Structures are given as C-alpha cells and as structure tokens.
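ok trying this again, last paste got cut off
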Amino acid sequence: MALFGRKNDSTTTPTVEADPALAALTGEYTIDPAHSTISFTVRHAMVTNVRGSFTEHEGTLNLDGSNPAASTAAIDVSIASVDTGMPDRDGHLRGADFFDAETFPKMSFRSTSAEQIDAETYRVTGDLTIKDVTRPITIDLEFHGSATDVYGNERVGFEGSAAILRSEWGLTWNAALETGGVMVSDKVKLNFDISAIKKAPEAA
C-alpha cells in the first residue's frame, strides 16, 4: 500500500498510481504520544552507544490518499523532556553545553516533500530546527499499515530513522579522551516510531 507517490520523471519511471484503498485513509491524524517514541542513539567514548528519548512531543500527519506525495508531517518536541536514564547526563544535555533548553525549548520538524521508494519504504524530506538552526534532513520510513483499535480509533503506524551531524545544529560540545578520540560522536541517529489517530470530521 503506497502512502507517498514517487516523483514523476518522464525519462525513467512513470508516477506510481495510488492504491485505491488509500482513499479511506485520507485525513488529518494526531500523533499519539502514549504509543509513539522519538529517540536517538549516539556513540559514547568511542566504544559504546548511549540511547535516549524525548518523552514529551506532539504532531500531526495530513495524509492524502488521492495524491500521496502531497502528504505532510509536523512534529514538535520538548527538549526538557530528554531522558537517557541518568539524571546528571540529562541535566547536562538540557544545559548550555548542548541544547540550552531554557533558551530553545523546542525541536521541530516540518516536511517539505515525500516520495515512495518501494512497496513498503518511503522517504520524507523536511526542515529540522534545533536551537533556532534549521537544516534539511531526510527520513526513511516504513509504513506499518492501518487498523481500528479497541476504542474505535483509526490508526496508522510508521517507523523510520535519519542520521545527522549534531555540529550542523550548533551542538558542538565535546571532551578529548586520553586514549584518543572524543567523548561524544558528531553523528547522531534519530529514530521515529509513530502511531497516529485519525481526527473525526468536524460537524457541518
């Protein structure tokens, strides 16, 4: 089932036709924070990975079943909600050395384009803003399908990731190791595991 249409290139492959079954999915969806995770993985001390998440976030998806490439996404994340399982480290991340959450309380993503890569994989490009620095990123997504939950909510699910260099957003703090290398790698992997609920149509 294709949610995002491939960009048309007349010299290669014609535009992928949208699956008729997608028409029922057209609409606005609210990301369900209780069943969604926005997390990150970063190399620590050159030898292991630190994993963390942002426990407070909100967002919307606008899915267009008739023109899947017109689908959009918007996500806002509370920086102060960062959680790596160590309060001291979380405090450091919130401080001026890293995110400076008091001055820049939000991280945001706004999609600018979307395309289908294959039957199950999609690519969404958009603007990621951290500390008032906005740069483009590309997120590869897998669409997990749609379902109606036990409460009657219509849901869609996505899982995806993107790799960024934190220094490009002004996150440059580091410390040299006696054995060589640095404490925190520049490369960070962002992970998105999203469940979103379709909004009911407004009454006329």
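PB: full thing came through this time. The longest strand covers residues 133-148.
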